[in-house]
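Late entry, written up from scratch paper. The run itself happened at the end of the previous shift, but nothing got recorded in the book at the time, so transcribing now.
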Amino acid sequence: MKIKILLVVLTVMIVSVFGMYAKSSFAHNNAILTSTNNTVSVSAPTIGAPAPVFSLEDQDGKKVSLSDFAGKIVVLEWTNPDCPFVKRHYEAKTMTTLANKYKDKGVVWLAINSTYYMGKDKYKEWIKANNISYPILDDHDGSIGRIYAAKTTPHMFIIGKDGKLVYQGGIDNDAGGDKDNPVTNYVDQALTELIASKPVSVAQSRPYGCSVKYAKQ
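Output as recorded:
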């Protein structure tokens, strides 16, 4: 009788241990799957989150890294010299005026071109024609544009001194370039607030312009 009771107890213990092991193994496998999925799927950066780091070559082949500007405010401008919206803003000197306005106030301006068919010679022509003082970074494979989920040219991003994203969206609220009322330049407004150590009042807006011409995957 004692032997039967002992066998029953041992059986229950074995089943219990096996169940715990199976549950643990299943959870472990799920964790691996979740981790794997996270590495495959890259979500767009959100306001308040660290901006994705990158290194790209400028028009002269010089490597420029976001980490080079730690402790500074960085403006990222997705651009395409062939885009009519970009042409309009450069004819109006929207970008170059803003970049020059803030360059002595600890603000770095970087243009990024994710146009798949465009080479660096075009960047040099664009810089010369528009008297651009900041670099145009080559992202023709679209890897950085996709990480940032850049949708249009222009699409603007501002990174604070702490390396976190503080603004993303359009350069202003005048997509058609024909607004009668005073135009609000969101980037100018955000930079003014940041330099004054104030929170950014408009942290996100809808970007407008031409779609980014990404290489097909």
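The longest strand covers residues 107-113.
(Scratch paper discarded after transcription.)
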